[in-house]
Design goal:
Keywords: Membrane, Transmembrane, Transmembrane helix. The chain is mainly alpha-helical. It contains 6 helices and no strands. It has one domain. 77% of the residues lie in helices and 0% in strands.
């Protein structure tokens, strides 16, 4: 099988232009929203499980939780776009700078790793710069508990955005 450089060179000879703007803005505008929606759905599942186990909530309570779900999703989508927009833009910029294209299933692992690393670095910077109290110490375990779930959500969001916005292998190759 040909390398990615050979595929891109062949595709450029036949009029293929890498969609850098589409990749950057697609990742930046939807990447954070997708992460926020995933965060909301995970939190909703944890909340309903907690309410059922601990508080023995009735069916009416569960129905009221499900009626609130669209508002939670909308709110967390905007929160995710605000908080996750920067790492999503950085992931899109990196992937478009590298002219990343899909060839096989292993590319999903690479996109997950890129999204995971960029989101975890961003989470580390946010934890370090938001720690303004001199007597408050954040241990490695605290950072792990904060950044690891966010980084997993960032990696999954990068995979979803990659499926939507990254170019696939050219049809005539």
């Amino acid at each position: 099988m040909a390398t990615k450089k050979e595929i891109l060179a062949y595709a450029k000879q036949h009029g293929f232009i890498y969609p850098k703007i589409k990749v950057i803005f697609g990742f930046g505008l939807l990447g954070g929203m997708i992460g926020g929606i995933m965060f909301c759905c995970i939190g909703f599942m944890i909340e309903t499980t907690y309410e059922q186990i601990i508080n023995h909530i009735s069916h009416k309570g569960i129905i009221s939780l499900f009626l609130k779900l669209p508002f939670y999703i909308l709110g967390f989508a905007f929160l995710g776009a605000w908080a996750g927009g920067i790492p999503a833009f950085l992931t899109g910029i990196y992937l478009s700078f590298k002219n990343f294209i899909f060839i096989d299933k292993k590319d999903y692992v690479k996109i997950f790793a890129i999204g995971f690393l960029i989101t975890s670095i961003f989470a580390l910077l946010m934890v370090v710069f938001s720690n303004q109290q001199p007597n408050m110490q954040i241990t490695i375990w605290d950072f792990f508990l904060i950044s690891f779930p966010l980084a997993i959500i960032g990696g999954i969001s990068a995979m979803i955005c990659g499926k939507l916005f990254l170019p696939k292998l050219p049809n005539n190759f």
